[in-house]
Structures are given as structure tokens and as C-alpha cells.
Predict the structure.
Amino acid sequence: MKIAVANEIEICERRVALIPDTVARLVKKGWEVWVESGAGERAFFTNADYEAAGAVIIPESDRLWAEADILLKVSPPQEREDGRLEIDLLKPGAILIGFLNPLGNPEIAQGLAQRQITALSMEMIPRTTRAQSMDALSSQASIAGYKAALIAAAALPKYFPMLTTAAGTIAPAKVFIMGAGVAGLQAIATARRLGSIVEAFDIRPAVKEEVQSLGAKFVEVQLEEETATAGGYAKEISEASKQRTQEVVTAHVKNADVVITTAQVPGKKAPLLVTEEMVSQMKPGAVIVDLAAEQGGNCACTAPGKDIFHNGVTIIGSINLPSSIPVHASQLYAKNLTSLMHLLIKDGQLQIDFADDIIDAACITHAGEIRNSRVQEALAVPSA
Ligand code: NAD
């Protein structure tokens, strides 16, 4: 059985699906690992590193795609410069695993089903205790939260820490984090390490203790409705609750030097937390980093992938931050992928066991069918 690591042809993707250390572990288990020549280069892993780990380097991309039994990617398959679709290069019955974005781009699932590909999408791994080691959304969101704090610190025309110097005392920066999930908690931890004063807000009161344990103040808003599902995910809140939260958070946004927004409700457009009016009330020189830029943005002024300047405030709509830390992002992603593969391969044999809740949730296409109801629903909705 050939496990293949493809080159990421998307220009802004620097991560690679497996790193040499992980390849060595798979090879030790008796698996054959093929790596497309140069696949790890943008993450600083050379062909020689992979060869030393026991991988076979394949210079011909078409051959790697055509002969792979399991093809591993980071970002979704693309259209090549010559107009060919990468999914058309796979052999029927092959397994494709990666961030396939099946809810944002459900047509990809249609193409994969037509090609008889068994596709597992890393976004669909449930955030359960058993699936923790495979939870690539979390491993990568944590990197994004860390980087968001660094980007904010670099863009702020002030120091983050308090400093007492011979030339006077510098007050610490005030950072307000909105959304204290995986990315938000890492942003809090990083902003604290850089010496700023941190406040955080989330509609789920359950995160209060985690926020406080990181040394930040939790901004509480009493809402008269359930804000989390039984599984612990955030729910979309009513208009009345949105208004109530806005009344409370407006003062904190106004007072902040930096706002980092990370709020999301799974499967929904990002909630709008910072209106244009709120941005207008912020201090000149203040910085907003909006991690939800690609999901519609938590701030009304956000443009994905761009820096916007509005009344002296910089709004940064960073996308794909994990790719900017490709060494560790690839290391963690490789671990997530191999944990998932251990569920798929038992005694050297492939077994797609849909009785396993993780495989059932992650597998979006199999035997010519689109298996996931959310993907089917997304396909049924005509795009705007
Ligand atoms: P998460 O689900 O772990 O956390 C989101 C948090 O938002 C939850 O704690 C939830 O309770 C909270 N929330 C929901 N609605 C809210 C509201 N109205 N007000 C306040 N809080 C609210 O998600 P995550 O994995 O931390 O990801 C956060 C965001 O970062 C997502 O939009 C994700 O797509 C994005 N992300 C961006 C990048 C990037 O490079 N830009 C990378 C990874 C993740």
C-alpha cells in the first residue's frame, strides 16, 4: 500500500502533510511512503531528509497521484496550470485525506464522489476526547491564535509590556480577545507572555475559568438563553442577546489598544461583533486582528487577506496563519493525519469502518456517494 505526500501547488500554502520524522515511524511499521519531490521544501524539509527517513522521492507528480492508495494533502486539490483537475489524476478507489473545505466548496465532494474516491476531510473530525490527537482544526487554530497576537504586537505603534526605564514608565498595552475557543485561548496566552493586560469575552460562560487561569480578566455578559450545545459548541444567539452583548463589549473595544476576534459558531457565517461605529470609537493607532476574516469576519471593516485603515485603526484580516509557521504547523498536522490513519489501517489492511464515529464524521465521499448530510445540504443551496 502506497501512502503518498503531494506537493501543495497553492502558492500561499507552505505546510506539508507529513514531515520526515513521521515518515520514519510509518516506514518502521512496514508502510511504503512516497513523497513528491520538493513537497517539504517550503517547510524546510528537504528530499534528502525524507529519503533518510525511508521515503521514496517521486519526481513525477502525475505518477504519484495516479498510483497512490492513500494521498495526503494539506489544502484541497487544485486545478493545475494546464487546466487538469488534481482529483481527476487519482485512481478510482483511492483515499484522499486533507483539509478539503467541503462546506465552503461542496462541488469538490461531487467531483470526488464521481471519481469513486474515498475522501476524509480533516475539518469534519469531531472535537471529541477520542478524536483529540486527530483534531487538525484545533492544532492549526492554536497556531493562528499565537500568530495573531504576534501580528498585533508588530502592528501596534506601542510596546506590549509595561516598562520602567530611565526615560520614564511605559504603560502596558490593553488587549481584548473576543471568542475564547482554541485560537482565542492561545491568543490570550501569547498576549499575556508579551506583557500586555488581557481581557476576554465569550458567549459560553464555561470558558471563564480557562480565561482566568491564563491571567486574563473574563468579561461577563448575562444572557437569558442557552449559548452552547450539549456537545459544548457555541450556538447562534438571538438578536436580543446580540444587542445585549454589544452593549457590554462596546466599552471594552473602545478602551483596547488591540482587539483580536476569533468568534465562530460551527457551520455558520462568523458573528459580527465589532461594528463600523465601534471601530470609529477606537483609539488612533489601535489594531484589530480578525481571525474569522475568511468566514465573513467578526468586524464589519475586515477584508480577507488585507490590512484596512479606518479612522486611524488598522484592521488585519489575516488568512492561513498556520502556513506562516510551516515547521510546527506541519509537524502537528502530520501527527493528526497519522493518528487518523491508524484508525483506517488495521493489521496492514485498509478498513473503512463507518461504525467508528470519527471515520463516519470525517468521510465525506465513498463508493460514489456523498455521505455527509451537511455537504449534501450545502450542495443543494444555490450559491449567491
Ligand atoms: P472555536 O470554535 O474553538 O472557538 C470559537 C469561539 O467563539 C467559541 O469559544 C465560541 O463560544 C465563541 N463565540 C461564538 N459566537 C460568539 C459571539 N457571538 N461572541 C463571542 N464569542 C462567540 O474556534 P477556533 O478553532 O478557535 O477558530 C476561531 C476562528 O479562527 C474561526 O473563525 C476559524 O475559522 C479561524 N481560524 C483562522 C485562521 C487564520 O489563519 N486566519 C486559522 C485557524 C482558524
In short: Residues 136-155 form the longest helix (20 residues).
